[in-house]
Specification:
Immunoglobulin-like, mainly beta, 2 domains, flat, 5-stranded antiparallel β-sheet, 21 strands, single chain
Length: about 250
């Protein structure tokens, strides 16, 4: 009964928006058929210019919690922490909740000023309603793979926080057994790195991997044999807090 009520609430919420479908703040991109979050990074903002960034979401229809299979009845964004003052997020349906298997989108808007130049890591709190062998369950998770960046247009990079975003390459992608995540540290000597994966429910994983390479060119060799199939976001964490790298990978 609980899930039937949730379904009715989600469907009715589509029509409670002002003007019906015309009140949508964004339109989901149905070309995304693989579960995941798109794109990898948010738009860059600049002082005294309106900020707009749209995130598309393809909700997975099911998941696994350890060895347990679960149907995803619905997924709801409860809150987004870390947005710059005056910024807001809105979804294509009210209360930011979607049924399992649906496409959705989130719009982030704001009007930054010069005092807000910097980097704002976001923490998205997510509640997932599950059906485990006919028994209702909920799971609370978080996703920390995004950040709002407000740049100084004259300097070309954040004036208060210097962040170097590394370009990463995953090959092959998708993969099943092993993948290589390659990156280059420009002007920086080689340094230790930690790898964190996040699944579509925001759960974090610390998989085993090996590191190879010389000088600034480094490659992480990741095994996917102990991970469930699906799309993951990843973050590389370095000793230097001013260095950042994120990306997406798919395990078949």
């Amino acid at each position: 009964m609980k899930f039937l009520l949730i379904y009715g609430w989600l469907v009715s919420s589509l029509f409670l928006l002002p003007g019906g479908s015309q009140g949508q703040v964004c339109i989901p991109n149905t070309n995304y058929t693989v579960q995941g979050i798109y794109p990898d990074t948010l738009s860059t903002g600049y002082p005294d210019s309106a900020y707009l960034s749209v995130i598309d979401i393809k909700i997975p229809p099911d998941t696994t919690i350890g060895p347990i299979y679960a149907i995803i009845d619905s997924l709801e964004i409860l809150e987004v922490f870390g947005l710059p003052t005056g910024f807001q997020y809105e979804c294509n349906i009210s209360r930011c909740a979607w049924l399992g298997g649906d496409n959705g989108c989130v719009r982030i808007t704001g009007s930054p000023d010069a005092s807000q130049i910097g980097v704002y890591p976001l923490k998205v709190m997510i509640n997932t309603y599950l059906d485990i062998a006919g028994t209702p369950a909920t799971q609370l998770d978080s996703n920390v793979s995004y950040a709002v960046v407000i740049e100084d247009p004259l300097a070309g990079m954040p004036a208060t926080v210097k962040v170097i975003s590394l370009e990463t390459k995953v090959s092959p992608n998708p993969f099943r057994s092993d993948a290589r995540i390659s990156y280059r540290l420009p002007g920086i000597s080689s340094q230790p790195v930690s790898l964190v994966l996040y699944d579509m429910l925001g759960r974090s994983f610390h998989p085993e991997y090996s590191l190879s390479g010389q000088g600034n060119y480094q490659t992480i060799i990741l095994s996917g044999t102990d991970l469930d199939a699906g799309m993951y976001s990843f973050r590389l964490i370095f000793n230097d807090p001013e260095v950042s790298a994120v990306g997406r990978l798919i395990i078949q």
